[in-house]
Design goal:
By secondary structure, the protein is α+β, with helices and mostly antiparallel strands. The chain contains 10 helices and 11 strands. It folds into 2 domains: 192 residues, no CATH class; 81 residues. 24% of the residues are buried.
């Protein structure tokens, strides 16, 4: 039986939340607010860690994935890599994850061209170079650093770097460790190495609560979302027919089709409450005040402990005042939105009465 997992953002560190927010203050403040008050995030995707890789032929990948991965493979081949196989991660929801695995000429480095897409709207491509050095795993990538991994996976991320630069940076790391210490990979153990890294990542994030099993309700909801997305994508030129075959219900010949399960209830949008708007503004203001004082907090705390001078009050007062200011601005914006909404409702009522 497949066990599906989801990410619990409330168990992420503040550094991980900051990276996932792409260094933007408002999304980060919202995530911190949810973390502090343990507000659950809705499950938007699910993933599994299988015991074996789900291999797929390159020609059976979706059209856009073939185009992007083919370009990366071509560049890697010019650097001495040769493709071994392609595989796809087991996922629920709109997110799809495809990878092409390559091996360097000397066997010291496994390369991976990765294509991740979310419903055809947001997509990202990256190249990862990995090597095994005794008990450590050296990984160099041009993807964005988001969620932490186990300490034995020594990851370095260089977003925006080309494949040539990633391979050169990774080779430099191998030289510094000692090329004689690198355990060379082969075609037969490439899949095993990838699975080992996956299992290490799963165990690490399960232990700290970042990954947690999904409920059956969440699985059913995302399964229904995947079916609706696949049916809507039937005329999409970038969608492979094999993908549609996988998500369509399998009905055998001479067998009565089973009744479809009831559709999951439509979840109402979150209410725009005054306390939610004010709380978010207060948290954002507090964080802004802390950032302004980031260079003076250690010195001020030291003086406050030693002499209990007014610097300690400064440390607490500026973030608190900025939090009050942020809450006031958010509350004023909420009042304005509510006033506009009430006026629109009144206008609709008058128009209906007049007609």
């Amino acid at each position: 039986m497949t066990v599906w997992y989801k990410v619990n953002p409330n168990r992420l560190t503040y550094g991980e939340l900051w990276r996932l927010a792409r260094h933007r203050a408002w999304p980060f403040a919202q995530a911190v607010y949810r973390k502090w008050f343990n507000v659950p995030f809705p499950a938007t995707s699910g993933f599994a860690f299988p015991e074996s890789l789900e291999l797929v032929e390159f020609q059976k990948l979706p059209g856009r994935a073939r185009e992007v991965l083919g370009e990366i493979i071509s560049q890697a081949e010019n650097l001495g890599f040769r493709p071994l196989f392609c595989w796809q991660r087991s996922t629920l929801g709109e997110i799809k994850d495809y990878s092409a695995v390559l091996l360097s000429a000397d066997g010291t480095t496994l390369g991976a061209a990765i294509w991740v897409t979310a419903g055809g709207r947001n997509a990202s491509a990256s190249f990862v170079a990995g090597s095994r050095c005794e008990e450590r795993r050296l990984i160099t990538s041009n993807s964005t650093y988001t969620i932490d991994g186990p300490p034995e996976l020594e990851k370095l991320h260089f977003p925006g770097k080309s494949i040539d630069e990633i391979v050169a940076l990774h080779a430099l790391r191998l030289d510094r460790r000692g090329i004689e210490r690198i355990q060379r990979a082969t075609e037969t153990d490439a899949a095993e190495r990838i699975l080992e890294n996956q299992q290490r990542t799963l165990a690490f994030n399960l232990a700290r609560g970042v990954y947690e099993p999904m409920t059956q309700e969440e699985i059913d909801w995302l399964s229904g979302t995947m079916t609706r997305v696949g049916a809507a994508a039937e005329n999409n030129p970038y969608q492979a027919p094999q993908y549609l075959d996988e998500i369509r219900p399998a009905i055998k010949h001479n067998e009565k089709p089973q009744p479809a399960p009831p559709a999951p209830p439509n979840r109402p949008p979150p209410k725009d409450t005054w306390w939610g708007a004010t709380g978010g503004g207060f948290v954002a203001g507090m964080l802004g005040g802390m950032i302004l004082l980031q260079n003076q907090i250690p010195y001020s705390v030291y003086k406050a402990v030693e002499q209990w001078e007014t610097d300690f009050g400064m440390v607490l007062s500026l973030p608190f005042l900025m939090g009050l200011l942020g809450g006031a601005v958010s509350f004023a914006a909420w009042l304005r939105r509510r006033g506009i909404s009430e006026r629109n409702k009144a206008k609709k009522t008058q128009d209906a009465a007049g007609s």
